[in-house]
Amino acid sequence: MNKGILTALVSIIMAQGLKIPLHYVKSGKWKGGLFFQTGGMPSSHSAGVASLATFIALKRGFRTMDFALAFIFGIIVMYDAQGIRRQTGELTLKVNSLNDLVQKANEQEGVPFEEKQPRRLKEMLGHRPEEVVGGAVLGVITGLISHRTWGNRKSR
């Protein structure tokens, strides 16, 4: 088994699992479905790439091409998670709010208006910077633990 892949997958699963109790502490609501959703604290994207880069750095060295690739792709993934994907989520919030505004305007004006109710767009797509950092910290810790557990064993 590729220990780097296993490290990243464990980190991703841990990040997704942590979203449920963290959301409960914050809101008082238990939402098990958060395990299968994107967005939220901590970022599983960041956790996965940070744990992989950490494991590679400790296993192969910071000066290797393996680490360089993992690090640069990790930075791109984290930037995308809090940048483009976050902006898409913000836009989705505005589009969903616009539908509510149209319905209120229709009720107040009394103009006959018939429309199929569109399915609400998914609003939690990206991450706030602190969620990305939280995922990265979780990933580094997971990478360190993984290396301590499997680091001396033969690995791909």
Topology record:
Elements: H1 3-27, H2 44-60, H3 65-82, H4 84-109, H5 129-150
Structure description:
- This protein has 156 residues and is an all-alpha fold.
- Helices cover 69% and strands 0% of the residues.
What is the H/E order? HHHHH
Q: Please provide the count of β strands.
A: 0
Strand content: under 5%
Task: Please report the distance between the alpha carbons of the first and last residues.
Answer: 8 Å
Tell me the structural class: mainly alpha
Helix content: 55-70%
Tell me the overall shape: elongated
Q: Give the radius of gyration.
A: 20 Å
Poorly predicted runs of 5 or more residues: none
Q: Please, what is the average pLDDT?
A: 81
Number of helix segments? 5
Largest sheet: none
From the structure above, extract its key features.
0% strand; mainly alpha; 156 residues
How would you briefly describe this protein structure?
This protein is an all-alpha fold and 156 residues long. It contains 5 helices and no strands.
